[in-house]
Each structure stands twice: as C-alpha cells, then as structure tokens.
C-alpha cells in the first residue's frame, strides 16, 4: 500500500535490550523524521534524514541510533532500552525541505520498556 | 526559548456546536504555522499551513487564523461532528531548517452527542 507505515504498532521490551522500530515510505520522499510523543508534551524530534546515508540529530537523540541505507526505509534503534524511552514513536516523511512542505506521519509505534 | 502553548488542554462540546482552540507561540524567527488533527492511536494529519503573510485559511469546517504581530493563532471548528473528537496540535516552524518544527502539546477535543 502507498504511504508511510511503521512496525510494529506495539512493542514491549525489557530494560537493557536492543529494539528496532521500522519505518517504510513508498513516495520516495527525500526527508524522513523520527519523533517521540509523551503525555503532556509536544512531539520531539529524535533524528532526521535528508537523503540516503545522510542523517542528523534532533532535539532528543541520546540513546537512539538511526540508519538510512535506502531512501524508503528509516529504522530507529534503541541500543539499550531504558524506562524513560517508553513512549509513542512517530515516523514522518516529506518530499522537500521547503518550509511549507507537507509532512506525512505514520500511525505510530507504542513502545513500553519494563 | 522557542515555545508553543495551546489552550485549553481539553474541551468537551456538544455535537453541532462551534468551538475555538488557541495557540500562542514565542518561536523566532517565524516561517509558518500548522494545525494538525490527531485521532486516538493515529499519526497527526495536516489541516492547514499558514505563512506569516496569511491571516486566515480554511479547510472545510476548520478555519485557522494567524496574527503574526501578537504571535497568536486560533482554530475554529464550525458545526462540530462526532468525528471531530481528536487532539489538535499547533506546530510552528522557524525560518532555519525543516527540522526546526516546534510542536504544541495539543488540545484534546471531545464532541458528545
């Protein structure tokens, strides 16, 4: 299906484990983003990517690793999960970096670290 | 510090009524302001994008206004429907880089029959 999809939708993991959240988009958008959404807070940018093999840190990158070997995929890895990383994670993509360019969001992954 | 504040935090209205959500921001420099609708368990979906030169923008029953001088925006929903029940997020973009979106915490709207 066309669009942006995230997997899994729900994930429970233990403290200290490595976990990877997947994001796939079918539009060939250049830009992709990872956000986390916590209760009472606005979405906060974790990492973003301007193109394949180009990534950069956002506001809250500590504890996360990203890669982008292909334009359509942008996985987010928690190297050693902590309880503070319990959150809802959203992936987004946009065609350009233009300031008025629309961003499209995935459905989110709810991650619980126990 | 760049901030986006929304009010109220939550709101309950009856179906068919109108409502207005507020957004105040301190982001500078300013490029554009967006309103998103986020249904429970879903990702945000764009309603409007306004640049500093636009005062109002409509999308069906949704009308957004912007006063760049006072750094305030509002989202007016006309003749509310049950499907309008969602969180509404105000997002402000600075002039330097698409990665500079500042998100508000959102207003949670519940429309009751």
Task: List the main descriptive attributes of the protein structure presented here.
heterodimer; A: 114 residues; mainly beta; 7-stranded mixed beta sheet; 4-stranded antiparallel beta sheet; 0% helix; globular; B: 113 residues; 5-stranded antiparallel beta sheet; 56% strand
The number of helical segments of chain A is 0
Percentage of β-strand residues of chain B: over 45%
SSE succession of chain B: EEEEEEEEEEE
- Unreliable stretches of chain A (pLDDT < 50, length at least 5) are none
- Major beta sheet summary of chain B: 6 strands, mixed
What would the principal axes of the Cα set say about the shape of chain B?
A: globular
Helical content of chain B stands at: under 10%
Order of helices and strands of chain A: EEEEEEEEEEE
Question: How many E strands of chain B?
Answer: 11
Mean pLDDT of chain B: 92
């Amino acid at each position: 299906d066309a669009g942006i999809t995230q997997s899994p939708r729900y994930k429970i993991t233990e403290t200290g484990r490595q976990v990877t959240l997947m994001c796939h988009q079918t539009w060939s958008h250049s830009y992709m983003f990872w956000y986390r959404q916590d209760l009472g807070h606005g979405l906060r940018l974790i990492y973003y990517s301007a193109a394949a093999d180009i990534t950069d840190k956002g506001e809250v990158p500590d504890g996360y690793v990203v890669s982008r070997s292909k334009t359509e995929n942008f996985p987010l890895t928690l190297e050693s999960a902590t309880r503070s990383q319990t959150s809802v994670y959203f992936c987004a993509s946009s065609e350009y970096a233009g300031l008025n360019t629309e961003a499209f969001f995935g459905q989110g992954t709810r991650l619980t670290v126990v | 510090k760049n901030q986006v504040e929304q009010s109220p935090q939550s709101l309950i209205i009856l179906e068919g009524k109108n409502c207005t959500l507020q957004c105040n921001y301190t982001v500078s420099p300013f490029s554009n302001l967006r309103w998103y609708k986020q249904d429970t368990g879903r990702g945000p979906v764009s309603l409007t994008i306004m640049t500093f030169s636009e005062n109002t923008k409509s999308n069906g029953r949704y009308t957004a206004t912007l006063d760049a001088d006072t750094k305030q925006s509002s989202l007016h929903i006309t003749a509310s429907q049950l499907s309008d029940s969602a969180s509404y997020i105000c997002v402000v973009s600075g002039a330097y880089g698409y990665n500079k979106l500042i998100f508000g915490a959102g207003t949670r709207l519940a429309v009751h029959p």
